[in-house]
Amino acid sequence: MASFGRRASRITFAATVALAITACGTTRIIGKVVDDEKKPVQAASVETDPPTDYIVTNHHGFFVIDRQLDASNTIQPLKAGSYKVIIKKLGFKPKTISSVDLEDGNEVVLGDILLKRKRIEMLDLEDPDALQDGGPRPDALPLPVRGE
Length: 148
Hints:
- By secondary structure, this protein is of the alpha+beta class.
- It has a domain at 23-118: Carboxypeptidase-like, regulatory domain (Immunoglobulin-like, Sandwich).
- The protein is built from two helices and nine strands, in the order H-E-E-E-E-E-E-E-E-E-H.
- Strands 3-2-7-8 form a four-stranded antiparallel beta sheet, with no helix packed on it. A three-stranded mixed beta sheet has the order 4-1-9, with no helix packed on it. A two-stranded antiparallel ribbon has the order 5-6.
- The longest helix has 22 residues, at 2-23.
- The chain is extended, with a radius of gyration of 24 Å.
- The termini are far apart.
């Protein structure tokens, strides 16, 4: 029975140390992406300038930016500085949050970030001037080659 008590003490001590290490000195940016109805937006792309790691929101709309890639593409802890956060999701208008100032050992909680849905009208799809990406117009494509 004494062995069980020592083992439980060691596990409790190890868990306490791990919790203290992760809670102290973590430099990170945290947020939650929601839509017009305050529902979480999952799989939204979260980019930063200067660039950090590739981040996507989880199924609850949350994201955490706590690491970045250095010049040799090695993962490093997030450094203090001023960041611009850009959130994108297909079917929504992109959202930019300018000047997120981050200090070493601190976290910035952005809270709920609203992404507004993009409304696409059928007239936009038929109007050649609505092709903002510069893609080819359907009548400008070559005819398909048929086999002989």
